[in-house]
């Protein structure tokens, strides 16, 4: 017996003289048992636990959890009864709220991963996401590096040595925000201007920073008088700067510089990759420095800068032809 019929019969027994009115009123509602709603929440928590055991980062788990809990709050059905139409209604609601296309695709990708996992675990029969097509994003449009002029303005509007060191390090190392926030002074090889960072999937790699970044970092860490982290708070205990704090600092510098767009640490990572390609650095080297597992991700920069790719091609192949002449 479904939940609405069960509730109707219970109400009839309590007030049998109002049976017709009860039916009329309940026709306007969808009724779901509390236990069914809780079932979806339990599935979400089981999924997050499984992904935590798989080694996903805390940030990824938070992102997954935010999307899935938002979806669960909008859905009264248990996981096995959710249909493709339910998903489409939810996605349509996100679009009406004005979410960016990239954010909507994050929701779609997360739901696809979630329901595929439920199907693989035999919790549901078939994923409702099978009928949901993922629109292909123009990934080149999401890569908007700073121009040389914008980067100069950003540098000029730093107020102290910490801000100058932070901007220079992010712009010349290509580190992700989470990687930069996790660096400890003991990890740094000052002579080689390199540092081992822990990237996505708990994979380590070596990144480098410029001579100017090295000078600024040494000046900054030497002047603050303590702390084990590379970037730390100004308070006496010098605790590590959180990723959110670093985001705020970079955003505020961008605002002081009068840049028309919002500046965040990932823009500096894109700027590093773009400058490396413009300078003739090989794509496999850029891939290694950025920590991209898939070469296609790095190839996006070649799509953004076809002239740089052409120069790299000419440098190798045209020179070969000249040598044969």
Topology (elements, then pairings):
Elements: H1 3-14, H2 19-26, H3 34-53, H4 58-73, H5 84-96, H6 101-120, H7 148-156, H8 161-173, H9 177-181, E1 188-189, E2 194-198, E3 204-208, H10 211-224, H11 243-256, H12 265-278, H13 283-290, H14 295-304, H15 306-324
Antiparallel strand pairs: 1-2, 2-3
Helix pairs in contact: 1-2, 3-4, 8-10, 8-12, 13-14
Write up this protein.
The protein has 325 residues and is mainly alpha-helical. The protein is 60% helix and 4% strand. The protein contains 15 helices and three strands. The protein has helices at residues 3-14, 19-26, 34-53, 58-73, 84-96, 101-120, 148-156, 161-173, 177-181, 211-224, 243-256, 265-278, 283-290, 295-304, 306-324; strands at 188-189, 194-198, 204-208. It has a three-stranded antiparallel β-sheet. Helix 8 (161-173) crosses helix 12 and helix 13 packs across helix 14.
């Amino acid at each position: 017996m479904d939940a609405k019929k069960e509730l109707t019969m219970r109400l009839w027994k309590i007030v049998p003289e109002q049976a017709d009115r009860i039916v009329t009123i309940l026709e306007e509602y969808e009724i779901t048992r509390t236990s069914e709603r809780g079932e979806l929440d339990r599935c979400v928590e089981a999924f997050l636990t499984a992904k935590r055991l798989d080694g996903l980062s805390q940030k990824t788990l938070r992102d997954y959890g935010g999307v899935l809990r938002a979806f669960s709050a909008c859905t009264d059905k248990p996981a096995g009864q959710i249909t493709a139409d339910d998903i489409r209604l939810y996605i349509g609601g996100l679009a009406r709220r004005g979410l960016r296309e990239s954010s909507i695709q994050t929701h779609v990708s997360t739901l696809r991963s979630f329901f595929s996992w439920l199907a693989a675990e035999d919790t549901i029969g078939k994923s409702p996401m099978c009928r949901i097509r993922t629109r292909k994003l123009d990934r080149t449009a999401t890569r908007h590096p700073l121009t040389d002029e914008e980067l100069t303005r950003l540098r000029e509007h730093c107020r102290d040595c910490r801000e100058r060191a932070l901007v220079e390090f992010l712009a010349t190392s290509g580190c992700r925000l989470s990687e930069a926030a996790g660096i400890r002074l003991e990890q740094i090889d000052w002579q080689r201007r390199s540092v081992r960072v822990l990237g996505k999937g708990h994979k380590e790699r070596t990144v480098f920073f410029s001579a100017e970044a090295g000078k600024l970092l040494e000046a900054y860490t030497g002047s603050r008088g303590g702390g084990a982290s590379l970037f730390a708070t100004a308070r006496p205990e010098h605790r590590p700067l959180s990723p959110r704090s670093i985001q705020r600092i970079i955003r505020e510098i961008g605002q002081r510089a009068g840049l028309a767009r919002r500046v965040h640490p990932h823009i500096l990572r894109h700027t590093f990759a773009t400058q490396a390609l413009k300078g003739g650095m090989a794509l496999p080297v850029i891939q290694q420095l950025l920590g991209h597992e898939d070469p296609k991700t790095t190839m996006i920069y070649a799509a953004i800068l076809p002239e740089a790719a052409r120069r790299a091609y000419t440098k190798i192949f045209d020179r070969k032809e000249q040598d044969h002449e």
